[in-house]
Amino acid sequence: xxxxxxxxxxxxxxxxxxxxxxxxxxxxxVRDRIRSGARACEVIDLHDxxxxxSLRFExxxxxxxxxxxxxxxxxxxxxxxxxxxxxxxxxxFLPRLWDESSDRSAxxxxxxxxxxxxxxVAGPTLLGRIGNAAVTVHLSLSAGALRRRTPTDQQWxxxxxxxxxxxxxTRPDLLxxxxxxxxxxLMGSLP
Length: 191
Prior knowledge:
Blueprint: E1 11-16, H1 23-35, E2 41-45, H2 53-56, H3 64-69, H4 74-85, E3 92-93, E4 98-99, E5 104-105, E6 111-112, E7 118-123, E8 135-140, H5 143-149, H6 158-167, E9 174-177, E10 185-189
Parallel strand pairs: 1-7, 1-8, 2-7, 8-9
Antiparallel strand pairs: 3-6, 4-5, 9-10
């Protein structure tokens, strides 16, 4: 996967997967590996780009349509993280926008991207939303594994996630079966 990231330029990597697959944790391991090669790399957690609770919970705290379509602020992610990394972009990115637990601004400062900076965006429902990624990885869970590994208070997110991924018309560069993270299986890879 790391070999697919272009050298000498800024690059975006997407690690997509339900929260039960721990995509942010996996992204942290990838970040550490990239940094060991003396390259600047940061992880952007999609949960740091959620909309305020007044918008997320407008229809209810467990509204499946809201979770699938408007829970995360993809416009802000594009404006503050993705666009600045493009050629001609401002070259500085916002690592966090919103603190989900306190429902307040994260008050993060812009960080200057290195000329060969890698940003790894990790979280659920990213598949097909970031078109200019150098590599897109999907950590796939079976319905059973998703149900077992999702906390009780978040079980309501399972149906919207299953629907989102079953309707996704975008294929990842790497599809990884993640039911057993200690024994991942590479299911598909684009050339």
